[in-house]
Amino acid sequence: MSDNVFKNQPSLRALLKAGKPVLGSWLQASSPCIAEIFANAGYRWMGLDVEHTSASYELVESVARAAYGRGADLLVRVSQADQIEIRRCLDCGAQGVIVPYIESAEQAQKAVAAAKYPPVGVRGFAFMRGNNWGVDFDEYAAKANEETLVIGMIESKKGVDNIDEILAVEGLDGVFIGPYDMSGSYGVPGQTQHALVKEAIAKVLAACKKAGKAPGQHIVRSKPEQIQAALEQGFTFICLDGDIIFLDQVSRATLQTAKEVIAKF
To answer: Which of 21, 46, 143, 244 is most deeply buried (CB count within 10 A of its CB)?
Structure first.
């Protein structure tokens, strides 16, 4: 049987279509162990970052294997809307892709086509890990187009300007805002709370609501009030921090606690 996407639980794509908030986190430390920990903790999805790390296809497969049967979908943030890269990540066992720097409907169409089998797209059929090395070929092939998630990242002014056309692409399930790249695109690098960035985000949110597509946000060093604000704004595809952020926060806090105890001796 194929990975979690075809189990009895509602698929991640179905949850987002229904407007249900789903919580996930980034995997950037290249560790299948962390994927197991995240899945066991109850995250509904994990985003393996292949764009900004040294992650290989072998790692994608190892992380997919670690997450298998644990109730968390593996999404891969690929480096670009590349047909072969997207195909290989899905064949390795990912349940979907997050595609960076989408600025036009044509780019979104290319990403969707790469992730979907004919006649919808151009993904190649094969015996591979995603269909249990061919054992579940028929079932996987029948359900993959309906279950595979495709999220585009909106990270530039051009992407915001073209958001309505991008969201009109059939098969694109939603968009994930890249606030740091977006701030740079608007000439205010790093100022993610700048009025220009906030206005751009509001435009993306409004377009998602109109198109019935899921809006996503990365909440960094997340606090309850940030999560509440994201939900109130209408975000449903929510990423909480990431493995490297969690490790940094906990290691610093634990060390500081130990130092305070030692200081009392």
So the answer is: 46
